[in-house]
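Propose amino acids for all 333 sites.
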């Protein structure tokens, strides 16, 4: 039966209070989550890491990120191509993240060493990829896998008809803790009652075959206001070790995608791992009003990022708690 309605909203006629909803802990089997996580970690990434949003690339300064302790900068060269490389000046170690870009040339603020994108003075470029929403760099020395020519980018709707927004947050955990959070869809209505209600996991990779694509299928309603909700079916998959994708397959916004990417940053002053969550929302709809929504993207994007940020305040607490227990041998899963 289709979840599609003439208008996107539904009315919950018999809403169940939070503490009276059906417990999901028996369904959320630790072994199922752990095995799905293990299989995700075995999939190839080709040593590609998400640096940030394409929209954050500017003509006057580089896009910078520390990945697994390696400083990286990305900018647009004079001929329009993207350039990536180490974020440490080869002269005396200045932070290139603070350096301006002038006519496609990155100019070090300390002594004026100019980098145009090719090898120079000991500086070597890195492979870089712009998928239209996110910017990736390939760090073979960090990843240690056989390299791929391009990252494993999930299937997305046509960018020309989509509304996109990218949220970035950081937490004290490993990338696999972020992935483990996303491979536990059972926590949604309990941990995020302000956003999700009536959640049922209708399919999970219980004992999935080695090498197969794990998929968690969820029927859930997004809360709008009061008893007004938007029911959808969503499918969660992990195409590579640091990415989990949610595809809306039925209901309002069918075809939309939410990608969660986890990028290791390095360690903090106490030796604890830090991870960046880069979440890309690529939303589509065939409703008439969606064209107006796309035109209002500059107004809507901050709201979309704020909504993602509210969820990730909770989900990063989940990931951080998992890392804390794992690192001290106390995690029950």
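Proposal:
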């Amino acid at each position: 039966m289709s979840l599609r309605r003439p208008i996107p909203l539904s009315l919950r006629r018999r809403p169940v209070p939070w503490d009276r909803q059906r417990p999901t802990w028996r369904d959320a089997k630790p072994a199922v989550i752990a095995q799905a996580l293990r299989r995700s970690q075995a999939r190839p990434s080709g040593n590609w890491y998400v640096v940030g949003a394409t929209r954050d690339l500017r003509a006057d300064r580089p896009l910078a990120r520390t990945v697994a302790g390696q400083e990286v900068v990305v900018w647009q060269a004079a001929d329009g191509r993207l350039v990536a490389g180490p974020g440490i000046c080869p002269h005396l170690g200045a932070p290139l993240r603070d350096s301006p870009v002038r006519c496609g040339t990155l100019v070090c603020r300390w002594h004026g060493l100019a980098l145009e994108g090719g090898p120079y003075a000991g500086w070597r470029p890195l492979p870089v990829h712009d998928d239209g929403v996110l910017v990736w760099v390939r760090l073979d020395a960090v990843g240690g896998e056989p390299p791929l020519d391009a990252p494993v980018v999930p299937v997305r709707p046509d960018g020309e008809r989509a509304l996109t927004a990218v949220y970035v947050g950081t937490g004290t955990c490993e990338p696999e803790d972020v992935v483990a959070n996303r491979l536990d869809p059972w926590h949604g209505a309990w941990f995020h009652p302000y956003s999700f209600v009536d959640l049922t996991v209708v399919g999970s990779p219980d004992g999935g075959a080695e090498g197969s694509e794990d998929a968690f299928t969820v029927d859930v309603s997004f809360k709008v206001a009061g008893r007004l909700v938007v029911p959808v079916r969503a499918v969660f998959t992990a195409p590579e070790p640091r990415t989990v994708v949610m595809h809306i397959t039925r209901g309002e916004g069918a075809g939309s995608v939410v990608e969660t990417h986890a990028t290791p940053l390095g360690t903090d002053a106490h030796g604890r791992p830090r991870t960046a969550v880069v979440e890309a929302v690529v939303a589509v709809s065939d409703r008439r009003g969606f064209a107006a929504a796309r035109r209002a993207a500059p107004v809507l994007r901050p709201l979309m990022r704020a909504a993602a940020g509210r969820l990730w305040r909770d989900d990063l607490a989940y990931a951080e708690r998992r890392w804390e227990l794992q690192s001290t041998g106390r995690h029950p899963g």
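The chain has a mean pLDDT of 93. DSSP finds six helices and 17 strands in the chain.
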